[in-house]
Amino acid sequence: MTGPLAGIKILEVGAVLAGPYATLMLADLGAEVTKIEPPAGDISRQVSDTYFASLNRGKRSIVLDLASDAGRHRLGELVAESHALLVNLKPSAIRKLGLTYDALRQYNESIVAVALTGFGLNGGDDPAFDYVIQALTGVAAMTGDPAGPPTLPGYTSVDNSTGLTAALGLVAQIYSGRGGQVDVSMRDVMLSQLNYHAAGYLDDGVVPARRPFGAHPFYVPAQLFPTAQGYLALFVTHDGFWRSLCAETGLTGWDTMAERAANRDPVIAAVSAVLATDTAANWETRLRPRGIPAAAVRTLGEALDATPEAVVQAGPYRQVRCSIGMDGYVPDYRRAPALGEHG
């Protein structure tokens, strides 16, 4: 079967990660994505071939100097026959290059123009990168051991989250049947993802605190635990899970969520003592058949080795498959384009 977005033509003026990741998802779902690159190419081509390929498989590439009359003319021709254009640049550059809906509608009233920026189209040009947004939205302050410094996740959570949100906004506006501007900012995406933390602060005045081993603020026990060998993630969110855990480990008491929350420290101490008697791998093997959410902490290599079905071949590179599965459809995992290959 063809992909659900077959026949949809999308232009990308993107660099590095957030924008290209958004259109990668759309290309995996069957859209025809044409990557418009400057003469020097997307800067991610300079990082490594595998880096670029992981974000740009299945796309077309053309080279345009959008600051030139010829480049703007060709852009207009492409917009006239496309459904959407997604750009991730500074707001001033987006406007200067004529990549807003107001500038593009002369070529196509139905075009969807998606601007992916740090702080919104009207939010200024302050530099906005993944780590910077994690710092200024409170994410870094909430992450890490309470006795240590703020910590950043080991992957680009802001760029990936913003890319997914931009892809959703693009598809939603196309579905509406009308053209228009879609404005997605990295800051707003991360604030939105703080959902219950933000609501707790806004409505109840609760300031989120860092807890040892990433413990959940509401559920107990729900965190990482050191074991006889390795670390175990355990996530007991309701009393049924707790009863199952007690049946396997011999723990007793604290039968309700409220009791466990009110007695966090003794509960954690008791669970820690039990889990220290066996390895993380063995605990996973023992607990999961009982339906208890538990997993040994794995390295990236171990995680990929354990899920060979998630790895696909895209040209010369092995990559992780599209995360959206659909009945009757498997993406055509084609290689990433050479610079200007489809010009």
Automatic annotation (TrEMBL):
Please list which residues make up the signal peptide.
Answer: none
List the GO molecular function terms. CoA-transferase activity
Which Pfam families did the record assign? Answer: CoA_transf_3
Which domain of life does the protein's organism represent? Bacteria
For this entry, the protein name equals CoA transferase
Quote the Gene3D superfamilies the UniProt record gives: Crotonobetainyl-coa:carnitine coa-transferase, domain 1, formyl-coa transferase, domain 3
Q: Where are the transmembrane segments?
A: none
Q: What UniProt keywords apply to this chain's record, in alphabetical order?
A: Transferase
Q: Read off the InterPro entries from this record.
A: CoA-transferase_III_domain, CoA-Trfase_fam_III, CoA-Trfase_III_dom3_sf, CoA-Trfase_III_dom_1_sf
